[in-house]
Amino acid sequence: MALEYRTANEFVATNRPGKRGWLLMAPLLTWLIAFVVAPTAIMFVYSFCDRDDIGQVVFTFNLENYKRIFVPEYGWIILQSLMAGGAVAGFLLFGLKADGSLTAAIREKTGFGSGSFVGLLAATAGYLVMRERVFALTTGGNFLKILFKSVELAGLSTIICVIIGYPVAYFIGRASDNARNKLLMLIMIPFWTNFLIRTYAWITILKAEGLLNGLLIYAKVISEPLPLLYTPTAVIIGTVYAYLPFMILPIYGSVEKLDNSLVEAAFDLGAGPVRAFSNIIVPLTRPGIVAGILLVFVPAVGMFAINDVLGGKRDPLIGNVIDQQFKQARNMPFGSALGIILLLLFAIAFFLTLRKEEKN
């Protein structure tokens, strides 16, 4: 602990790591440099290069790989989306200012302020316009279309993980110590089995003559097998199954630290279960929710093994495209450019989440 003199009557305590502190950090820093910083730097350099006829990297340093990703039509699509979002925002802002009771009603019913509500709807409108235009695009490599599919699948899987994982995490966090340890063990048991083995096991469950269709036919819920395997539904099921623990554990950490006296105080002051949950429990457990969303969404966007096994490689995702560029196409520069774009999206999402948490 060191003291930094600032004014005549003020000393500020600051934590400054000494040589021993940096020595303890050395293994972690070495690992980060060797397996995170260095590969990312190599990928960044490769993204500006070309390849020769046999797949070797040629250091020419140009923007051709990025031009291949962002065809000219994409600029007009993005502009249209921004215009649609701005129009919706302007219309709603005018309506909200014209009628103050609407603002109060929105805040009362949804928990959002008028600004958050307008921003959410404007972003949704812009996204829907962009999605429609991108999916109608037939020129170029359609890599933005593939990226949209990847983001949508990962986003839907993340939402399902939140819906399923939050009640489970809350129940575990509020359970007794003995029951809590047993429940956490049940959450961790799937990690004892190899990831690919667990994914392949879903084939026997989802195929036409599999366990799920057999049970549904036996219970006379359906008359013929459902086409579940090798569909986007199967990919979502596999993604939720694989990443659900990564949603439960961070939320559990926040729920475990939740001060129950605050919830009791909310009930004493007249709040109902829904209001206490939305205004007290959710804000106090928001750090765990945000951490869970990042831990699920980020790897889900880039995953390709689950799509290969359960999706049958019928609808390629961005992870499949990157994998193909490095393996089959032997085009490391273009695969690196796709990887850098994906990395930038992750960085933007993390930055926006971090800023929102700082404001809260």
Shape: globular
- Number of helical elements: 16
| Portion in helices | over 70%
Strand tally, please?
A: 4
Helix and strand content put the structural class at: mainly alpha
Q: SSE order, as H and E? A: EEHEEHHHHHHHHHHHHHHH
What's the main sheet like? 2 strands, antiparallel
Unreliable runs: 1-5
Mean pLDDT: 79
Task: Please report the distance between the alpha carbons of the first and last residues.
Answer: 30 Å
Notes on the structure:
By secondary structure, the protein is mainly alpha-helical. A hairpin with a 5-residue loop joins strand 3 and strand 4. The protein has helices at 19-46, 64-69, 73-98, 100-110, 114-136, 143-174, 177-188, 195-206, 211-218, 232-256, 260-268, 273-284, 286-302, 305-310, 318-326, 332-359, and strands spanning 2-7, 10-14, 50-51, 57-58. The protein is built from 16 helices and four strands.
